[in-house]
Structures are given as C-alpha cells and as structure tokens.
Amino acid sequence: MEYLFALNEQQREAVTYGEGPLLVLAGAGSGKTRVITYRCAYLIEGMGVDPDRLLAVTFTNKAAGEMRQRMERLLGENSLTGVPLISTFHSLCVRILRRHIEHLAAGFTRDFSIYDDDDQQRVIRQCMRDLAIDERQVTPRYVSALISHAKNHAADALAYLSEGQHARDLRRSALAAIYPEYAKRLRASNALDFDDLLIKTVILLRDQAEVRAHYAGRFHYLLVDEYQDTNRPQFNLIRLLTDQYQNLCVVGDPDQSIYRFRGADIQNIIEFESHYPAARVITLDLNYRSSQRILQVANAVIRNNRQRKEKSLRTENAVGQLISYYHAPTGEDEARFVVRGIETSLRQESEARIAVLYRTNAQSRLFEEECRRAGISFNMVGGFSFYKRAEIRDILAYLKLALNNWDDESLLRIINAPSRGIGKKTIDQLIEAARGRGISLWEALALLLAERMLGARSLHPMAEFQAMIAALNERAREASVSQMVRAAMEETGYAQALRDKKTTDLNPEESEGRLQNLEELLTAAVEAEERRESLREFIDHAALVSDADDYDPDAHVTLMTMHSAKGLEFPSVCLVGLEEGLFPHARAAGDPDEMEEERRLCYVAITRAQQQLFLSHARVRRVRGTEAPAEPSRFLQEIPEELLADVSQAGSWLSESRRGMGRTDLTRSEYDRPEVFNKPRRPFAGKTYNSVAGIRAFLDSKGVKAPSSDEAPEIRAYKTSTKHRFTPGMRVRHQEYGQGVVIGREGAGEMVKLTVRFPGIGDKKMIEKFAELKRE
DNA sequence: ACATGTCCGTTTTTT
DNA sequence: ACGGACATGT
C-alpha cells in the first residue's frame, strides 16, 4: 500500500476513512477521481472488503470507464482481487429493473423498452395531436421538460401538474391533460423513459422489502461521484441502498453543479451533513491541475456567486502565463483566430492537447469548418452522435420491437421504413383499431389481418411486415447479437433499399454514408458479443451512451460544450463566445439562480485548463441567420484586468476600457471597417453612432425597440447593462462598502453621479466612472 | 402512395 | 441557414 504516500494529507484521510458517511468536498483538479479509486483499493486491500460488496456510481459511462481503468491498474499490480462494480446511475437502475420490475405490479415486464428523449418527444407529439393541443402554443419540448421536472420533484407528478389547472396558465393546464396520456402510452408500450428508470427503481426498492434487502445487503460500501449533480430520485436511491450500512462516501463540488435544468439539486450536497448527522467532511482545496493565474481567474469569477460555501482553490503549481484575451469582429473571425492559434501550437508542440469550449452546440459549426479548411483533424463531442442517426435508430427500433411487441413507438418508426407501401391511411386505421380496443399496435395488426379488415392494397405489405417481425422475434431466441443486427438490416429490406437508392438517387454519398454507419453498428455488435453481452444489453447500451462518451482523450484538438467538458482537463483551453446573451445565456436573464448556474459553468470551463487559457468574444454574431451586436460577457468583467494579455488585432473592448473610454465603446477605426458594423449601421444612415450604447440611446429616443415598460426591472436592466451604466433600483457591490442599491442618478456622459444606499452604512454619492461598482 | 415544394421554428446545457 | 412538418401534385 505504498501508494498512500502519493497522496496529500486530506486525500489520505478521505481514502483511509473507515465506516460511516463521508463527504469529500473536492475542488476542481484536487484529485477527486484519485481519491475514489484509491479509496476502493484501500477498502479492498487495507480493510479486506470483498470487491463485490463495493459499488461506485458515476453519471457518465466515460467517467465509469475511466475509473474502472484506473482501478484495474491500481489493483492489478498488487493483487488478484476483482474490480468492484462501477456503474452509472441509469445503467445500475436498468440492471435492477431488468431483474425485478415485474414485482412492481404496474404491468411492466422485464422486456421493457427504454425511450430516450427523442422517442419521448414523439410520444408527446402524438398525445398532443390527439388532445388537439396546438404545438405552437405549447411545444413538445416544453412539455417534456415540465413532465420531467414534475417527475423529479414531486412524489405524485400528476397532482403536481394538476395544480396548474387552477392557475390560469394555459400551458400548465394543457400539461395536466397531456401527462396522464403520456404515462398511459408508455405503460401500454411497456416502455420507460430516462426519468422512469430512476423513479421506478426507487419505488421498487421502497415497496419491495425483499428486493431492497437484496441490494442494500449486497453493497456494504457505496461511493458516489459528482454528488452535486444528483437529483431527488438519485438521492432517494442512494438512501435506500445505504439504508443498512450507512457506508456512503460522496464526492463533489457545489461550485461545479451545472445540471439544475435537469433536476439536479445542489441542496443534496449542501445539506449532506443534516441528512447524515454522523457525517465526516473533508475538504480538498489543493489543486494539482492549473497554473496560479488560471486559478486566480476561476476564483475571481466564482466569488461573485452568493449561494455557495466559501472556498478558494490554491495550488503549488507555477504562476503560469497570462490569460490570452481576444476580441474578434465577428464570430467567423473568432473561429479563424482560434484555429490559427491552434495551428501554431500544434507546430510548436506536436503532443499538444487543446480544447475549444462553447456554450451551445450551434457554435461548433464555425470551428468545425475552420478546422477542416485548415486541415486540422479534431474530435467533436456531442452534436450528431452515432446512435442518434436515423438509420441506426431504425435498425435498433426493429430489434426493440422484436424483443418487445408492445413497443408502439418503435413499430410506428419502422412500419414503413423502408417504404413498403404502408401509407398514412393504413397506419391511421391501425392506430384506430388499437385505440378502440385498448390493445397494442402489434396486436391490432394481427387483428386487422385476421378479420380481413384491410384494403386490398395494404393487405400484402401488412402481412409481410407482420411475418418479418415475427421471424425476427423468433430468431432472437438463439441468434447472436451480430446475427440479429445483420437480420434487422438485411431481412427487413432496409440495407437493400439504401443500396438501391445509392444507384438511382442524385446524391449517392448520403446513402453510402448511411450504409457505412450500419456497418459500424455491426462492428459494435460484434464487439458487444465479444464482451458476452446480450442483445438486450447491446440495445440498452445504445440508449444510455451519452454524447460525452465519444470523447477521445488522445485527440489533439477537441470541440465540445462546456457541459460535456466537466471532469476533463487539457493543457490548453479556449473559451469562446463570451458574450452577454450567449454566455451567460439569455435564458438565465432575470433569474438569479440560473445566473449563478451559468457562473458555475464558467468556473467549470476555466478550471479545465492546465497551463494555457484563452478567452474570446465577438463584436457581432450571426444568430439564426441575422447579425446582432454582442456585448462582452459579464464574466469577462469579473476577471481582474491585470491577469489578461490582450492579443486582439484592433482596439478591443478591454483596451478601450483601459483607456477609460468605457468598455463597450467601439473605436472610430473599427467602426469604419465595413464588415464590422455593416448591418446595424444601415438603419441609421445619415447619422453616425460610435457605440452599441449610442445606437441604443438613439433607439430609445425614437421609441423604437425600446425596452417596454411592462418588462420586469431585472430584464430591462439586463438588456441595457454595461459596466458603466447603473440605474436606480439596481443592486450593486462596492469594493469598500459592500452590497447596496442605486437610488439616484444625475448628470450625463462622463460625469454621471450615482447615489447608492448601503444597508447599515448610509447613502453615498459617487461618480459612476470611478466608483468601481459591480452589479449584483 | 409517394415525390416535390413551401413555410416555419429552431438553439441551452443532457442521462 | 437548415431541417422538419405540412400541403400539393402526380
């Protein structure tokens, strides 16, 4: 156990802590994964715990895989013991449910299908159509988000949603109607959505003492990674599993909680000590990853959050380089500059590893194109992942239907793919027959055929379809995974249709690409077979892989969202699109909690960097086709200027602010560059404005697009915010006096005087320009 | 039944 | 700018 010497004091304490609840508050880069893996090793080797009594839970397969690898390396050297079970929350639940779901007495069988969010949206869309709810008033997307929210926050989702009926909110009352219909269909299809996987497992363990005893008795020690991102069902699951031994070790960092939008509850980690009064708390705040300057930036930003446990990362690493800062004229220029920088780095350092991190997937396109143009190969995470492609989903739908005949969604997906002459009318007839009798589409199909209720034209294709699925179903008893995938491709005519299309269609590349994807699926099936996985496991895996799972740790250049970067590290990180409305995203405006979540995301992104951090934003960005001027992100304003090295070509927002011109002003020379402000300028022909603020003032004076008075004050303030523009009512922070509220504003231009009321101190008058106020 | 054309929303993050 | 959903034509 000489490896214990490779740990610092806090890490060692966490690793060797014995029985009972343990909370490890692990700041970014403080050796979190190391603590978990070493702790497992220590429990096994030092305390003689049987590896089968250990369970480690993570959020992504990527994290689980990495942990498994590190543990194998650690244990493999010294002993012959096995490796403990390392699983994601969702795959753990699938394992449990595939064995015991029939105990639930809710009608599900162990052959249940998993509906991913795409399937989910399709079901919701159908429900809405049946209930005659206009998709333009309530989008399926919104519905699914609210259903998920209800399921994750309330014991009784329907009751929760029904409360909305009393409120006169149209969308809410629509939801109260949609939800029961949605739940009914899933049940009838013997299908569970992602939320159900957790919730049904919790119900199963809660209500079935025998099943609970089995699992709680099996796992004597439970370790949970990224605990700050757990939601309520996950919290309940953990409680149920640790109910017997209370040997729970959770590791996380409240400052890195970035999944509130999908139900993560930061209170789980903040309140851990009250949930487990016997808990020991160990804080890891020594960072091994980043340079001092990078950590200074991270600390400076996260400090602006109010709801947090005070903590400041420190490091013994070198001071490091200044943070590069670039202000690009347009989004395209930003991408060009970043990729050029990457090119240079790759030339200098052949082993370089650089990540480009953005807020939204839509931003990836510019960087993809620029990399391609420059001939730089890159690894892009997310976006159009392999298992989301239509042809892959189609083949999987065949297999899902073969294993679960009640799976209406899969049936609808492939009944006419490839087109075999079963049209809308026939499908409607099928749906109608099923609805009237309360049976599945598959059963209705048999009925229509038996009763000769079909038109002459659709009879044949329908009969063939039935025979085909029946044959596939029959074959699933003995065939191997790859044989099944091959059968779903060939015996359904799917692959042949693509080959035909390739020879007749005007763009054969598309069909060829799809065929190649199918070959890739076949390869994956062979690999699954070698791992001795069943067809069911293969299909489950396809549903549960996350975008982050196609991250390649050896890639020199990686493009991904800030969210998927969590848990990773890179020598160089480029944080792009640092603009108000984009990052922080406009959706967070007016909601302080969401704004804090955006800031935590910023903190996560910054702390991915080891040696080099590069920050950029554009002056003009094209969003959804039209160009719009963009203001620097508030997060940039929160970074002390002395940490930044401005590498912008023309005058930048930063250089202007240093010259005291106000950070959002444009210089004359930039304004004259035609490509920079072409679009916004046109409406103001005959008069020149040299700043975004100036244009706004003009608009305001004309009453055009002026912020309307019925907007909430926070939203109005958000829209007009610049560093040097404070208006009465605004909450601000002063270096010396602390938090206060602006109560008066007088004067104009450079000489604006503000009156600010500081609780407990009194009213102060100050000149806006020199006051160094920050918005709260 | 299927191909072609037009319109509209879409983009926040994801197991 | 792009893709999906719907309408129209063959």
What are the defining features of this structure?
six-stranded parallel beta sheet, DNA-binding, eight-stranded mixed beta sheet, alpha/beta
Architecture overview:
- With 776 residues, the chain is of the alpha/beta class.
- Strands 11, 12, 13, 14, 15, 16, 17 and 18 form an eight-stranded mixed β-sheet that branches. Strands 3-2-6-7-1-8 form a six-stranded parallel β-sheet, with helices on both faces. Strands 22-21-20-19-23 form a five-stranded antiparallel β-sheet.
- Strand 15, helix 26 and strand 16 form a beta-alpha-beta unit.
- The longest helix is centred in the last third of the chain and has 23 residues.
- About 9% of the residues have low confidence.
- It is globular and about 85 Å long.
- The chain is built from 33 helices and 23 strands.
- The chain binds a DNA duplex (15 and 10 nucleotides) through helix 9.
Low-pLDDT parts are 662-724, 747-751
Number of helices: 33
Overall geometric form: globular
Distance from first to last alpha carbon? 50 Å
**Gyration radius, to the nearest Å?**
29 Å
Percent helix: 40-55%
Structural class: alpha/beta
- Mean pLDDT figure: 82
Number of strands: 23
What's the story with the biggest beta sheet? Answer: 8 strands, mixed
